[in-house]
């Protein structure tokens, strides 16, 4: 009797727990979508305004991204403190709506390769810094953004057409970030806090041409730095080579591994370092036949850029890892990069594929870095071959 009574009581308790579980599950399923866990690796996809004509905001794989950085806010003109972007307000608002419905954050990225002309002058003046901060806060409020990304190429050194002050740019950039951080934190508190990020070169920011060894003052102001670990080889190089190598090699000392070490030595913790990955590659016509090495001289003026989507759609790659003859796919195990070669035309292409991107994701996960940023999301296939492989790597 005593045992049976205990069993009946236990069964009643189990039924009660089951009913509560059903109620909880039903309630939870009706709740709004939660933001993606901040403890998981960050996956940032840059989305440039010029891609919108062929790759609309509705096509962005938001659920596979934690953040979208909309590129770019650029100066209205030479010396201007007014910023614009080549997109309609309605289109941008639509992007933000889609992203937030998927639990994905949206940041507006200022600058870029062609839009960094005025940064040096802006940060050098207290009045112009204040105007920049006011402009940024206006965009955040108008479009319900989750933060601001600054892609200044480059503080203290030349980029495309930008002015620069080798001695003072980095110090003045710090002043701008302090003011921007203070203004955002004053307006957006607690769960509404806004992020500030920066896209950076492979070397830490410099002063008088020398990379700084101590950037710890920037750490509390920035949620993350995204290192642009691509464009290692191109038309500016003396030979062909990997566009975005994971590892260094005897022929090349610039790679993801060397870049993240440099930023860590300068004071940035791994948890605030984002590794840049490329969904595009670079090609050229070799000046001599290539065999097992991807480092050979190339013909001047033959450089060309390819997106991964191009390689798949133009019949250069039959599958993600198989080339169409006469193209041959090689894989450099030292730099962990694939490359293609056409012996008939001597054409060479360095790029990233699912194999190399999975390795990069594993590297990020294994070493505790914050995550990855992608330039750029429209360059993947419709089935997101690259993004899927990258996320597999990030799961370790």
Automatic annotation (TrEMBL):
Among its keywords, does the record have ATP-binding? no
Stretches assigned to the GH18 domain: 41-396
Q: Which GO terms describe its biological process?
A: chitin catabolic process; polysaccharide catabolic process
**PROSITE patterns this protein is in?**
GH18_1, GH18_2, PROKAR_LIPOPROTEIN
| Protein family per UniProt | Belongs to the glycosyl hydrolase 18 family.
Q: Which domain of life is it from?
A: Eukaryota
Which Pfam families does the record associate with it? Answer: Glyco_hydro_18
Instruction: Provide the species name.
Output: Jimgerdemannia flammicorona
GO CC terms: extracellular region
Q: Describe the reaction catalysed, as an equation.
A: Random endo-hydrolysis of N-acetyl-beta-D-glucosaminide (1->4)-beta-linkages in chitin and chitodextrins
Name it. Glycoside hydrolase
Keywords on this record? Carbohydrate metabolism, Chitin degradation, Glycosidase, Hydrolase, Polysaccharide degradation, Signal
Among the GO molecular function terms of this UniProt record, one is: chitin binding
Signal peptide boundaries? 1-30
